[in-house]
């Protein structure tokens, strides 16, 4: 039972991690707390839904990730880049405006009812784990999460572009002075961040549901993760996502009365203990 | 001389958490208004509506309602959330308005918060829970039950009422789990439910949480290993949003197209003609709400809220459920209620009525309202 | 010679920062006159009720804007103080039967104290994380209140049955839009005036300095924790006054008024209005309400339209509406001066 | 001879503040030019104009003989102009080695690489994997110079490089700068340390209030004489 | 040990994780004395000033101001007792007008005259400007001015001349000397401009890798072979 619960925590943690890592990327490079991130998540799910009617889950996934990358690129090109000298609060509210627009667009196209995205055939069944059936699809989420984490860490830590990204995320001007085209760089990074939001949206489709509010539901949890991790830190966000996943899974069993408060309590405790989050510095 | 038009202010959830139900119920309301206007108005009065967004919050709902009421659209109808209904109820006197609740279920609307200008046209929670015990007695062989409810007033009330009903029958509740509203991953709860010794699970979750739970319960095979009985569970929008995950789930139902009354038959036929499908429970609730107002106006032959309220009090109304009484002491519309299950009918999965309960059983609930 | 230049330069900056007391009072009187004019010229009941609520939120925005201006901190949890004020007033009125005036004063004081204590613990958290921390604290209370049962009514909200006499006035004057508008407007003007006077004291530059560079502020001899906590507490108290007004006007308070999205909306008002002046956020609130209502009336796509307009305003007017107004005013003044010369 | 950098009647602004007034100057390949002046006259603004951090709103600026339009901050580096900025601007979350690697973002061929920089400043090798900001002020200055050299620039712009450095290190810098220049790198040296200027520069611009007020050869001038020139 | 030093540090040690930046350093300042503190980059000079001013916790040792132990006191208390400092990395209030921040700095100290300090440092003409819009050198002077307000009894200056033009640094040097001679202010001057250090210091302390390398009058230090080699180079 406890093993199953830990596994459950891992599943939700992995999902959160994918969403949060996109948020961290965008925050890292543009210093933007992206309130529209939840709606990108939602947009990904809906696009995948629409495309999957034609091309199946895989097709939907690809379509959503590609479309969201394009959206992210435009967001940076026509939004964040033009606002890069503005104070972060202003840009944050711009993303809030975008959130409203995205939600309205989704509602106009797909209406207000909920939809369901079916898991791919191959991942539909269950396997026996610790003596009870466990959905294969959920295990796949953990795998996707681990893959995303590994790729991101590898990319940022060991590649040239990764070095530029880390440089630009602390000091874009100095990084540009070294000859790095920070505009193109952040266009790419925001695209990847948005694509990750989209990916998470698609992945969550089969076990949550598609509704115009699905974005705001997950947004707060991802903020909690990013802030607990220490804004802008991937390692921090990964750890925080896993902790939050466990806290919710185990809290539901052992502290049911406080379950709703646990994420907030966790965040408050961490920030009071370490005001700049789990990882004092950024990766 | 033309009669004064009926001016209705529709406070609709167009954004926020209740958008889906908001859209449905608005469709039902508009259908009723069009129908009335096509027939030459309500008792010869044209029906005019204004529609505003309550953003699913009492704050915004109150703002919109106050604006409608103060600009003459003072026959109010529409919100989903009970908190909005209660917020409106508090102000009706001040705004000189009347309010007919169509989808809010809180017992307080006809309980401690009742007032002379507020009417409950749909089934309250008490009415839903009143049929649980009789149904269990006749239909449930299970001895041990588990409960999963949202961790707030409605969920807790539902869970407690269900527990009482079970205990009265000499059966027992093994585990009661409360999940915070907004829970997205129900796996931890499902694991506990599966591990419990219960043979059936009573579920009282709100919209979004419910949909997530339904999908995940099917994913983990809970739906097939234990009987699931829902409070506000087997509704079309849930069935549609979960793609087969609700197959076989039991629960309280407030409406189904097959209800055998002349009015319902006509209504369903007209609806099919227009939309090519059956109406769902939210649409009929909206439809019914407007009908209540219009019948009140006709009976009073006035559009003044006080007059309409006086006419509705204790009135017998024609509804799709047949003749129903607007109970004088608390303004609850008393009508039959149903227990059903989700089934495949003609290739389509939808809730189907299994047992009907007469209005007399439904209405046998005390109210602390003193009107 | 240079001493004179210095002296005038200093005076000049002070005049710009803190207009003289007389001028402040004159401006307040003008603001009161504006309120009276609006009250008399608006005949539509619907518009009046909208303006009343806008003014209540203007008080809320004033509080949140003060925090942003003097502490440079964003709070996503201020709705906590707004909603809590309503619940405290409601609870006290229901349970104790004390006179409403006393209840209100106690409520605002209690919230001030609570906020001060809270701030002592949390103001160390930097930047956006602070915003998220306030969000977490606010949401925790939201969850608690929604779950609570008994007379707070849980998620359904609480009706507040005020006695017939409030502050020696008929309850009806607090619940009728036109008279309540005046009351709220006067409260708003009084609060702006009070805060402006507060900033004229050393408190203004001190908190600004702490906002700019906390470490250096300590190295020029100022303890920084208490002033920051004080700003937070003042801001919370102003917000609480807004909450009290709301409770009086509607006689109802629900957990949603504690929800972070309320704080978010008010933050929009603050930025829209411009947080560099005290009165900017209040203007933002009024504009927000009128615009939102106007758009909502004409289309169901208000979210898109509102979102796009929000972005447009923020992009075009970096310092908000107040900033735009100030800029226009100075260029007018310059033009006038040129013509004179 | 190619003109690596040429300002012609350049006017530059910060927002609405007009800081550079008709500034004309040029640096040829391999040249060693100094730019001096009191605080606040606009020396850094010259650098910022090259980097598009101050806005160029009059006159022309050329890199390698090509007029620059649609300037971006990264343009200069790609044209072979590397900058050691005033205040160093070490990137806090990168290690020392990574700061250096970042300096090599534009891959231009040349003698400078990690190994040769480490040889020049051994302390950087010692601390290669600690964060750049855990260095003392002077050590950070070395890092900033090393970072600029990683780009193998054809023109190295140094904005007060000796600030905060110990005299021995300044001596070393003089040697290093001369070595760089001997190897063909042109230098634009903005300095307050006159002894460094006399040891390195061959030509001099003096700025006052946003304009160039004097230009001339430095050959044969000693510190005292130079001082007189600047103080005018 | 004489009790009447204006400032005294005894066996001060400071560590950053594994790095020992100050290793048992002792030093004292008499009233009205200007003491130069020099040493190679990374020797621990700034760290020493951080430790004296209370910015950084010390691992061992003690700090005494006018004979009383202030080791346990915080930054604010030390400043109010007359121990003031400037910063190597400029630390000012970027968004505030220069005049206003100087007034504020003066407001905690009785009889402080911010105008005089601004005049002395040539900031008076900038009084109405916002600090982040003045040049780097002017910002450096503002940093020092903030430390000078109210004529503290002990002044710790971390490379005050860095970034200043020759003119300005000479002016500042004159001003410091005036403060020390006429007002009895004790100055600890960290500086790499040897002309200034040797020109105005009464005594000089040399640090190397966190330890005391030499101490004495300017001439003694200038003649010290190790100092010449490790630090002075051609400036000797
Ligand atoms: N925050 C820090 N974390 C770790 N090590 C540090 C930190 N700050 C300084 N150091 C190290 O401590 C030592 C002393 O540094 P300090 O800044 O005191 O030198 P300094 O004498 O002031 O040098 P400079 O003349 O270059 O300013 C150096 O080796 C430096 O790398
Ligand atoms: N961001 C800015 N906004 C407005 N004005 C500025 C800005 N930065 C600098 N200035 C002004 O531009 C002028 C030139 O500044 P600059 O930094 O180029 O001087 P500098 O010659 O480099 O001086 P220093 O020797 O002190 O570094 C100064 O008068 C300064 O006040
Ligand atoms: Mg400069
Ligand atoms: Mg130092």
TrEMBL record, chain A:
The chain crosses the membrane at residues 6-25, 55-76, 88-110, 136-156, 185-203, 223-245, 252-273. Keywords: Amino-acid transport, Cell membrane, Membrane, Transmembrane, Transmembrane helix, Transport. It comes from the Bacteria. Its main location: membrane. It is found in: Cell membrane. The keyword Protein biosynthesis does not apply. It is a multi-pass membrane protein. InterPro entries: ABC_transp_permease, BCAA_transport_permease. Belongs to the binding-protein-dependent transport system permease family. LivHM subfamily. This is Branched-chain amino acid ABC transporter permease.
TrEMBL record, chain C:
Its main location: membrane. It is found in: Cell membrane. Keywords: Cell membrane, Membrane, Transmembrane, Transmembrane helix. The chain crosses the membrane at residues 20-38, 50-68, 74-95, 102-122, 128-145, 179-199, 229-254, 266-291, 303-329. The keyword Cell membrane applies. It is a multi-pass membrane protein. It holds the Pfam family BPD_transp_2. InterPro entries: ABC_transp_permease, LivM-like. PANTHER family: ABC TRANSPORTER ATP-BINDING PROTEIN (PTHR30482:SF17), HIGH-AFFINITY BRANCHED-CHAIN AMINO ACID TRANSPORT SYSTEM PERMEASE (PTHR30482). This is Branched-chain amino acid ABC transporter permease. It comes from Aromatoleum toluolicum. The lineage of its organism: Bacteria, Pseudomonadati, Pseudomonadota, Betaproteobacteria, Rhodocyclales.
UniProtKB/TrEMBL annotation, chain D:
The keyword Membrane applies. It holds the Pfam family ABC_tran. Keywords: Amino-acid transport, ATP-binding, Cell membrane, Membrane, Nucleotide-binding, Transport. The keyword Nucleotide-binding applies. PROSITE patterns: ABC_TRANSPORTER_1, ABC_TRANSPORTER_2. InterPro entries: AAA+_ATPase, ABC_transporter-like_ATP-bd, ABC_transporter-like_CS, BCAA_Transport_ATP-bd_LivF, P-loop_NTPase. Residues 5-232 form the ABC transporter domain. One of its GO terms (molecular function) is ATP binding. It comes from the Bacteria. Belongs to the ABC transporter superfamily. This is ATP-binding cassette domain-containing protein. It comes from Aromatoleum toluolicum.
UniProtKB/TrEMBL annotation, chain E:
Gene3D superfamilies: P-loop containing nucleotide triphosphate hydrolases. Pfam families: ABC_tran, BCA_ABC_TP_C. Keywords: ATP-binding, Cell membrane, Membrane, Nucleotide-binding, Transport. InterPro entries: AAA+_ATPase, ABC_AA/LPS_Transport, ABC_transporter-like_ATP-bd, ABC_transporter-like_CS, BCA_ABC_TP_C, P-loop_NTPase. CDD domains: ABC_Mj1267_LivG_branched. SUPFAM superfamilies: P-loop containing nucleoside triphosphate hydrolases. PANTHER family: CONSERVED COMPONENT OF ABC TRANSPORTER FOR NATURAL AMINO ACIDS-RELATED. This is ATP-binding cassette domain-containing protein. The lineage of its organism: Bacteria, Pseudomonadati, Pseudomonadota, Betaproteobacteria, Rhodocyclales.
